[in-house]
Amino acid sequence: MNKFSKILTAGALVLSSISASASEITVGGVTWDPDYQTLLATDFIGAVEFAQWFSTAGLNSSGAPIITPAFPGTVGSMLQGVGEITRFNGKTDFVCTTCELTVTFGGMLFDNDLTDGSVYDLAASASTGFLNIYFDNTANFDLGGFASQVDSDAAADGSLFLSLGFDTLQQGPGYTAQVGHLDSFWSVSGGAAAEYFDTDSQLFGSDLGFAATVDFQNNLYGIGGGVASGNSIPEPTSLAIFGLGLLGLAGAAHRKA
Ligand SMILES: [Ca+2]
Ligand SMILES: [Ca+2]
Ligand SMILES: [Ca+2]
Question: For the chain: N or C, fewer Cβ within 10 A?
Fold first, then answer.
């Protein structure tokens, strides 16, 4: 076997191992299939359960939403919350058994002024609104036992899997600060998986849509659930460079032979 065919064989082996594992990739501790398909023709679907509240307190030094609440619908307060991703592309074992994937969000300013079509201040929220997703190899967040600041902190520790900035939102019919449905739209700004989710493929050119329903039931905290959806792709740059590298290797070997 000459050098050229040896390299071709090695390349073929590498390529076949890629195609064998192409269905699932692991990034930042999270394993998923970037070609997962559903009837919605999107290849990322995540189910999220969360607690949310209105507050003027923002974040603490660890980046966790401060749990001091304002009454829902207080003008000048911001909607914020913490939660956990419970299902990722149809799977519940997308992280290790002692791991978790948690969510923090905030910065959506309530103005109760419909001039911009929303009870939120869409322009202000576009500069302050955030959605962060954390991978943590210690599963310390417990939505069911959510009671104090340490519970919020537990959703903001670990490593940043994905961070997103607020683009805009649409409120469902009859939405009030107490109860209702919100569709919010987000653009990737950072995190370990940033390049996989920066696809501009959702409404308004966003990367991720988040459809959520919440009911405060006259409490200061509301428990809600939602679905995040978008597209995820195999990281384009390194795959392309890898392919070019293989071609270059084959070409160099051919010239020598
Ligand atoms: Ca408004
Ligand atoms: Ca945690
Ligand atoms: Ca984008």
Answer: N
pLDDT tens digits, 166-194: 999 999 999 999 999 999 999 999 999 99
Which listed ligand is nearest to 115 at the C-alpha?
1
Q: 89, 86, 123, 83: which is closest to 103 by C-alpha?
A: 83
Kindly report the pTM of this predicted structure: 0.83
Amino acid at 188: V
What is the Cα–Cα distance from 38 to 199, expressed in whole angstroms?
A: 17
Ligand 2 centroid to residue 32 C-alpha, Å: 20
Q: How many Å lie between the centroid of ligand 3 and the Cα of residue 254?
A: 41
Whether the pLDDT of residue 14 is over 70: the answer is: no
CA 34 to chain centroid:
14
Beta bridge partners of 226: 48, 212
Boundaries of every domain in the chain: 1-22+235-257, 30-233
Query: Which residues, in sequence order, are CB contacts of 110 under 8 Å at separation 6+?
Result: 54, 73, 74, 75, 76, 77, 78, 79, 119, 120, 121, 177
- What are the distances in angstroms from CA 153 to CA 72, 83, 103, 201, 247? 22, 11, 11, 32, 48
How many of the other CB atoms lie within 10 Å of CB of 203? Answer: 11
| Burial environment of residue 8 by CB neighbours within 10 A (0 to 12, 13 to 18, 19 or more) | middle
The number of the ligand nearest the C-alpha atom of 82 reads 2
Centroid of ligand 1 to alpha carbon of 110 (angstroms): 7
